[in-house]
Amino acid sequence: MLLKSVFLIAVLITTSFSTFANSDVNALANRVTDRSMIILNEVITQIGARPAGSQQEKNTVKLVADIWQQANLTRVQRQSFNVEIKGQVINSQNIWVTLPGDSAKHIVIGAHYDSTGVKAGSQGATDNGVAMALVTALAEQLSAYQLNATVTFVLFGAEEVGLQGAKAFVNQMVKSGQVPEPDSMINLDTIAGGDKLYIHSPTQTPYKSCNNTSTYNASPAVRGELLLLAKNKQLAFNLHPSFPGYPEGETAGWSDHAPFACAGIPIAYIEATNFAINGRDGFDGYSQSLHPGLWDCLDTSLQTACDRDTEERWGRIWHTGQDRLDTLETLHPGRLRAQLSDVSELLVDYLIGDVLTPRHGR
Ligand SMILES: [Zn+2]
Question: Residues within 5 Å of ion ligand 1 by Cβ?
Answer without folding.
Answer: 127-128, 189
